[in-house]
Each structure stands twice: as structure tokens, then as C-alpha cells.
């Protein structure tokens, strides 16, 4: 019997591991709990960047060149928007827009985000369960040398240039886990933490107190795939942010961050291991499907060994 696996994930880095897991597990045995701290409203539309990255990646629609959005996208909406003098710091492709419009309309009609996401996944032939971490608003805010910035302003508009002093998750204290999240962690045979940014993509999930407690309580081993490859972040601000927060950029810091419930870690190649934590090693750079499947297998094998 194949193990039931629940993976906590952000967007780009996490989606690669989830795709690898999808290649080796029955869809019914795989649940992804996704960060919604990046979610925001733009022109009245509800946008869920990490959930959408997962939907696009797993359904083969992700734009590999841009690293965000859809493959084969067209940009008529943005051109029309610019001609009207609209703010254009956040790019919305025409196909991408359809997802946001439909989600916004259904949310306005009173439907819960988890049902909407579930329907989108099924519509695109995805059999795994994709759960938002919460249906209550949680807003990641970054305190920087240029002031307090909403996450997308920091990430997209300012391209992560401002130096980060602190990160805050507004609403997390009172946010409840989305339906199914706690059960998915409690009933899993294995829980994985994707190589997503620990401070910006995984921390918002952990900031929901009941989810953090579920990780402490679960009998499943929790295995972390390190986002560091040869001492650097593959993409995005992970390493820069660690340095700005005064942290050493290495796996010790990642392990210390997840201390209390992490049972093991997958580290890249010859990268230094974090002390007394059980580790498995592989090339964790996930270029293609083969890489993704290999990293997923190594993470799963380590977790099953630790059971
Ligand atoms: P975002 O929410 O779209 O910013 O994406 P995530 O937080 O899920 O992913 C960003 C993190 O993924 C960064 O810390 C990267 O170092 C890490 N990452 C991206 N690709 C890979 C990869 O192929 N292997 C590993 N180990 N980490 C990766």
C-alpha cells in the first residue's frame, strides 16, 4: 500500500516537489497544503499566487521561461489596461485573468476557496487534493528599509530589492485552518515540507497556530527538503532575506527554524548537514521531471525510514 503523503508548500520551488510526488504516488494519497499569505486583491480580483503556480505546474500549463504565469499566454488585457493609464506593475495574462475572474465571482457568491480550488484542479484533470492553508485572510507583510510593504509590492513591484527587517502575517493569529488541513496532517503517513522559502512561503502556514500544533502532534515523520543548493537559494530572495535577518545561509539555520517537529532533512549534494538531524543526500536541483521524481523518492524514503 502506498503511503499517504501531505506536503506543505509555497509556489515555484514547492510545486516542483509536488509534481515529483505526483509521479510516484496515487493521486488519492497526495495532499498539498498551500500558502495563502501571498493572496491579495488587485483591481477587485482575488489572486492566489501560490495555489495558481501549483495548478499551472501540475497541469503542464506553467510558463517555464518566465517562471510564473501560463505558457503561451497573450497580453491583450495588459495592453488595454496600459492604454487607459491603469497600474501595470502586476502582470495579468489573458488566460491567467480567467482564473482570477472566476475565482472572484465564486467567492463573491459565497463559495469557499477550498471548493473553488478543488473544482479548478478536477477541471484540469488533477487527482491530488490541493488545500489552501486557510480560508480566512492572512496577509504577509514585509518590514523593509523602504517601509512596510504588502508581500506582492515587495516581491513583484520592488523585485525583493528592499532589505528585510521582519516579516509579519496579519490575521494568522485568528485564522482557522481550511477544512481538511488538520486531518491531512494528522492522518498522513508522511509529512513533507517543500523546498519553499521558509520565511515567506512556509512561515505563513506555520503562523496558523492549529497547523503548527498539528505538525507537533502528528505521528508522521516530518521531512524538510532544503531550499538551499550549494549554499545558495535556487531562485528568489531566500538567501538574501536570511542574510538581512542576520542568519547564516546554511542548513543549520534551516533546521533550527523548523526545530521541534522536523524529523529529517534532504540536503543537496555535499552541502553541510545540520548536526544531529537524520539526512538524505541527492542533487536537489529540480530541472526536469526526472529530477523532481528523484528528489520526491529520496524525501519519501527518508521519511519512511524514520517511521
Ligand atoms: P514562491 O512562493 O513562488 O516564491 O516559491 P517557493 O517559496 O515555493 O520557492 C522558492 C524557494 O524554492 C527558493 O528558496 C528556492 O531556493 C527554492 N527552490 C526553487 N527551485 C528549487 C529546486 O529545484 N531545488 C531546491 N532544493 N530548491 C528550489
CATH class equals: Alpha Beta
Task: Count all strands and give the number.
Answer: 14
Radius of gyration in whole Å, from Cα?
Answer: 18 Å
CATH architecture: 3-Layer(aba) Sandwich
Q: Looking at CATH, which topology would you report?
A: Rossmann fold
Kindly give the count of domains: 1
Structural class: alpha/beta
**Portion in helices:** 25-40%
Task: Encode the helix/strand succession as letters.
Answer: EHEEEHHHHEEEHEHEHHEEEHHEEH
The biggest sheet, with number of strands, parallel, antiparallel or mixed sense and barrel status, is: 7 strands, parallel
Q: Say which molecules are bound, naming each kind only once.
A: guanosine-5'-diphosphate
Explain the overall architecture.
The chain is of the alpha/beta class and 307 residues long. It has a single domain, classed as CofD-like domains (Rossmann fold). It has 12 helices and 14 strands. Strands 5-2-1-9-10-13-14 form a 7-stranded parallel beta sheet. Strands 7-6-8 form a 3-stranded antiparallel beta sheet. A two-stranded antiparallel ribbon has the order 3-4. Helix 1 packs parallel to helix 2 and helix 1 (12-24) crosses helix 12 (289-305). Residues 10-14, 16, 50, 53, 195-197, 201, 225-227, 229, 233-236, 238, 284-286 line the site of guanosine-5'-diphosphate.
Task: Provide a brief overview of the structure.
The protein is 39% helix and 19% strand.
Topology:
Elements: E1 5-9, H1 12-24, E2 30-34, E3 40-42, E4 45-47, H2 49-58, H3 76-83, H4 94-108, H5 113-123, E5 129-132, E6 139-144, E7 147-150, H6 151-157, E8 164-170, H7 181-186, E9 190-193, H8 198-206, H9 209-217, E10 222-225, E11 228-229, E12 232-233, H10 238-244, H11 251-257, E13 264-268, E14 279-282, H12 289-305
Parallel strand pairs: 1-2, 1-9, 2-5, 9-10, 10-13, 13-14
Antiparallel strand pairs: 3-4, 6-7, 6-8, 11-12
Helix pairs in contact: 1-2, 1-12
The structure holds guanosine-5'-diphosphate (GDP).
